[in-house]
Amino acid sequence: MPSVTMTVNGQQVTRDVEGRTLLTDFLRQDLALTGTHVGCDTSQCGACVVHVDGKSVKACTMLAVQAEGAEVTTIEGLAQNGELHPMQAAFKEHHGLQCGFCTPGMVMSAVDLVNTKGEASETEIRDWLEGNICRCTGYHNIVKAIQAGAKAMRS
Amino acid sequence: MPDTGIGASVRRKEDQRFLTGKGRYTDDLNRPGQVHAVFVRSPHAHATVASVNIAAAAAAPGVIAVLTGKDMEADGVGSLPCGWTVTDKHGEPHKAPDHFPLVRDKVRYVGDHVAVVLAESAIQAKDAAELVEVDYQMLPANVDPSKAMDGPLLHDNAPSNLCYDWELGDQAAVDEALSRAAHVTTVDLVNNRLIPNAIEPRAAIAEFDTGTDSYTLYSTSQNPHLLRLILCAFVLGIPESKLRVIAPDVGGGFGSKIYCYAEETVCTWAARKTGRPVKWTGERSESFLADAHGRDHMTRVQLGMDAEGKFVAMKVDTTANLGAYLSNFATCVPTYLYATLLAGQYTTPVIHCNVKAVFTNTAPVDAYRGAGRPEATYVIERVVEAAAREIGVDPAELRKRNFVPPDAFPYATPVALTYDSGQYALAMDKALELIDYAGFPARREASKAKGKLRGIGFSAYIEACGIAPSAVVGSLGAGVGLYESGQVRFNPTGTVSVFTGSHSHGQGHETTFSQLVSDTLGVPIENVEVVHGDTGSIPFGMGTYGSRSLAVGGSALSKACDKIIEKGKKIAAHLMEASVDDIEFDQGTFRVAGTDKEKAIGEIAFAAYVPHNYPEDLEPGLDETSFYDPLNFTYPAGTHVCELEIDPETGVIEIADWAAVDDFGKVVNPMIVEGQVHGGIAQGVGQAMLENCVYDADGQLLTGSYMDYCMPRADDLPSFKVETTETPCPHNPLGVKGCGEAGAIAAPAAFMNAVTDALGTEDIAMPASPEKVWRIAQAAQAAE
Amino acid sequence: MYEFNYHRPASLDAAASALSGAGEGKIVAGGMTLIPTLKQRLAQPSDLIDLSAIADLKGISEDGGSIVIGAMTTHAEVADNATVKAKIPALADLAEGIGDIQVRNRGTIGGSIANADPAADYPGGLVGLGATVRTNKREIAADDFFTGMFETALAEDEIVTAVAFPVPDKAAYAKFANPASRYAIVGVLVSQGAGGVRVAVTGAGPSVFRVTEMEQALASNFSAAAIEGIAVPADGLNSDIHASAEYRAHLVGVMARRAVAAAG
Fold first, then answer.
1. What is the average pLDDT across B690-709?
2. In order of start, what are the domains of chain B with their CATH numbers?
């Protein structure tokens, strides 16, 4: 069984895994980081979005072994010292979540948007969210939350 | 406490855990020693199962057991029941075929459950499931509901595949009125079949404790007590006291998680059989195949008007597809939740509706966000819009001419309901202003100058929330009561634990109910904790669906708070040596009227639990439960207006603007209510513009993943203009009505009325896909 | 997913020998198509050879009049690359429109073209721009590379190393996306350059194809009006629940005109 070493939320981890182990299963089962969710099996819903080397990816469409040597950040790694990340705080303030299931992926995607593009218009935010499906909010408040979160991240 | 009380947009208590990845959904949980279940599903829509050979699978690595319908039969496991008996027009109960969790002799839809493989790991179970050999003897499939009655028979005890032929209303009066009408508008409509797609797939973990002879089931359920009741009393035959059902954090439901499905039934049964906890987590592909689907109606509607455009009669003829088996509440959706709403917001004096419900080789169909009411609204609002166009009256004006006026309430409709309160024209006027209706002609011209087609469409909907009262629904065939329970328990140090039979799977009950209790009892909101979703800790409750939680569950809590205050007054009277009649309660303080003597509610709670100085005739403790059975449904209503632009060259539709004015009675948390409206609109637009469940002629699901089933995404939708009017519900203590389904009920008609306005034809079915729109636009251009 | 042996070679040679040494070897680049395919158990490779550790396969450079993009360069990198944006903005636009950002952060040009999905965007880009595919064995003109639905000219043990795009005078890509999957129902890349005018269509047929009648018309008059009356026959085009062949044929015309207009 191959061994894989990566850094997850700042902590280096090494585990033996089957080659076919998905990064989502590795995070959820081997590391008990269950904030990364699985909502589909065709790489579209985005509930599993994490950052690998600073870029958002779908952890359900990546093998754990492909993250060898990578820096992985999950939703659990976003808040620092008990303080919500500005994007998390904005989602709360603007009611950008309901059932909470798509939320981790949505927030991780939003943080990548701000890191990549800085400022973004409503249209750009909506386009960026192409890979994140929410069934509860109609996206209205998610868009508002990301606008506010982007502002807070830049200040 | 204006900042956290009723009416304040309090930020949600539950968000901290959801935002930090600390939510606990069923698949996040694991039990020691658990095995994993994978289901062997039928790849065929209709076939006899001649044999199931499990030998190779049972010998595969890690496999604990491979179980089939024969094993369940041997253990006496029953059929999944339908909980609402509909009596047809001949006085006969609906046809109720068996629905075994694992099939015994025949599969009836693609995804039907043939066997379950239990193994040490999920991947081993999946590997082994491929080794189960099933000998299927193919039968012709019956897929198209319009031909179902003449097609291959699914169930021996349902001749012509007919579940029931049912009617409501006075057919003779309607026929007579239509024959005398100045104008009759006829429209044929399809309410397209949908797949609910809560983003969390269903999951279950069941375990059996041999020490206590009892089961625990963790499940993605909207109503844990109902699930327990069905599993215990109807399917597995175990005492209710021996099954604890826990529905932890649940990632959306929209109706699809109301029901007792095969999977959790099998897990519970197999947990005892194997002596190991059994975990099943559905994949999205399985959700597409085997979650209960929604809608799927075909309808002809006729609306008669007099010379002034007053509606004189409406006649509706519907065929409803129930799928291969009856899901728990399938029978009531196209009847009591549909035909009873066909008066809409209008004074139409006579209405008749006939519904034929048929079986087909497709997944079972049951309630999905709105459940019957979106179908009714679509029928009414499409025919009203078409009628306005036919007689050349402004569609907003025609509606206003026919609205039930504000002074007519309570208003008895010709289809069995009595509306509680409403101000329909007020909402309509506000919506017209929000969308700038007066400016529409100019905007249409501007679109035309760009080569685009612009349309505007209305939907003045009504819905019935908090289905009730129990005595009435019982008389109509419901197998359950539709009350709700609430328990308010003071802890000795003054914090409050609130137990509700409602279940939150996105609705924010932990916040809204905390606001309600905090406001009523004068306790800081952070001292209120809401507990839900665990039959081991909450009183018997009916769960959350049909926009009932605040109107029914909230009212139960309100009544429980009243009992707390009443008891508190007795304790306060004793402590302050006054008469109970002289005690007043306001914002957390008991006072002796006309004096400065007062006690905070926390002091009273402490005295109740440490009763050193306490009334002799009073029990200690401050813990009250109420069961609230409403006097009637509540009737939220409102007007949605959609404005959109069509590119005739491609058929692509862009929503330009959306105005929603809803009346939900009193609003406890406006932020949460607006969020519910947004989400509902998105689902309604999804139905009208994007979503469609398609089976081919052999019963294969063509839209079995997000590659083909088109979910609304952020870039498909605009931001919405959402406002409310407030006409309190007169018959519940809070004056609230219910908001969860309004958007999904209103939106499809508003959207399609705008599409048909832009295209100049009524003849387009949902979803208005680019190709359909392009074909119509092209034909119109060719005709010019 | 079935189990497989996983390899992550550090050089192209090592990758090639791992591939030829495997019983049923499969290369994984970004994995955006392969991993979902494996998850659905639609393929059962004995060995998976991951190219991500081979530095030579990544990056974008200028080579004479061409832009050369390493096979393992992601769609996001192409979309964001200053050189691509300056020299072939149509290609950056095309890359920006592939999948969603998470797919673009993992998916690669080499993986996309080797898979040759009829609804993928890059085949339109390569043929429309007259690109050349470089492999560990040879160079293949894009016109010869895509041979059918999920079929390419690649030999069993051949690995794409880069794609060289000649810089056109002007070019644009117009896409009509499937509303569900967001793949191309029809994508048209139109370019004009040293090699003449090219009109390449992806999504509409079993494989990318050129519309020579449009190319000829545009060669003499590069304007949307010049191709107004040119219809692509629906025969042989793809048809599914989202778009009939007839609709696709119509959209080829619309997207071609929009691409010409955008190219200016």
1. 98
2. 31-139+200-251+257-290 (3.90.1170.50), 297-467+632-783 (3.30.365.10), 483-628 (3.30.365.10)
8 A C-beta contact, residue A142 and residue A134: yes
C39 and chain B: CB distance < 8 Å anywhere?
A: no
Residue listed under structure tokens 């399609």: B752
Query: From the list A20, A46, A65, which residue is nearest C102 (CB)?
Result: A46
Q: Which CATH architecture has domain A3-76?
A: Roll (3.10)
Cβ atoms within 10 Å, residue B436: 14
Distances, alpha carbon B157 to alpha carbons B45, B96, B109, B154, C115, in Å: 19, 8, 18, 9, 51
Cα(B228)–Cα(B540) distance, integer angstroms: 10
Token pair of A20, please? 């076919």
Ordered structural domains, chain C, with CATH: 1-53 (3.30.43.10), 170-263 (3.30.390.50)
Q: Is A68 on the interface with C (CB under 8 A)?
A: yes
Residue B1 pLDDT greater than 50, yes or no? no
Residues of chain A in contact with residue C6, where contact means CB-CB under 8 angstroms, are 2, 19, 63, 65
Q: How far is A69 from chain B, CA to nearest CA, in Å?
A: 24
* DSSP line for B723-771: EEE----TTSTT-B---SSHHHHHHHHHHHHHHHHHHT-S--PSS--HH
From CA C201, how far away is CA C174, in angstroms rounded? 10
CATH 1.10.150.120 fits A86-154, yes or no: yes
State the Cα–Cα distance between residues B773 and B776, nearest whole angstrom. Answer: 5
Contact A62 C35 (CB under 8 A): yes
Chain length of chain C: 264
Question: Nearest CB to B771: which of C180, C247, C254?
Answer: C247
Calpha distance B132→B114 (Å, rounded): 10
Closest residue, chain C, to B711 (C-alpha): C180
Residue C109 near residue C122, CB atoms below 8 Å: yes
Chain A neighbors of B250, CB-CB under 8 A: 99
Q: Which subunits have 3 or more CB–CB pairs within 8 Å of chain B?
A: A, C
B617 token code pair:
């005739």
Q: Which of B20, B28, B682 sits opposite A88 (nearest CB)?
A: B20
What's the Cα-to-Cα distance from A141 to each of A37, A75, A134, C24, C189, rounded to whole Å?
21, 19, 11, 49, 37
Contact yes or no for C241 and B709 at CB 8 A: no
Cis peptide before B770, with omega less than 30 degrees from 0?
Answer: no
CB < 8 Å to C250, chain B:
774, 778
- Does residue B279 carry a pLDDT above 60? yes
For the segment C150-206, what is each residue's pLDDT rounded down to a tens digit? 999 999 889 999 999 999 999 999 999 999 999 999 999 999 999 899 999 999 999
Please judge whether A40 and B680 are an interchain contact, meaning their C-beta atoms are less than 8 angstroms apart. no
Count the neighbouring beta carbons within 10 Å of the beta carbon of residue B342: 27
Half-sphere exposure (CA, 13 Å, Cβ side) for B608? Answer: 29
Beta-carbon separation of B708 and C1 below 8 A: no
Dist CA A129 CA B402 (whole Å): 43
Of chain B, the percentage scoring pLDDT greater than 90 comes to 94
CB within 8 Å: A65 and C50:
yes
* pLDDT at position C141 over 80: yes
CB contacts, 8 Å: B284 with chain A: 39-42, 45
Q: What is the mean pLDDT of residues B422-436?
A: 98
pLDDT, tens digit (0-9, with 9 covering 90-100), for B656-677 = 999 999 999 999 999 999 999 9
Chains A & C: contacts with CB separation below 8 Å: 78
Q: Where in chain A is the domain with CATH 3.10.20.30?
A: 3-76
Cis geometry, peptide bond prior to residue B539 (ω within 30 degrees of 0): no
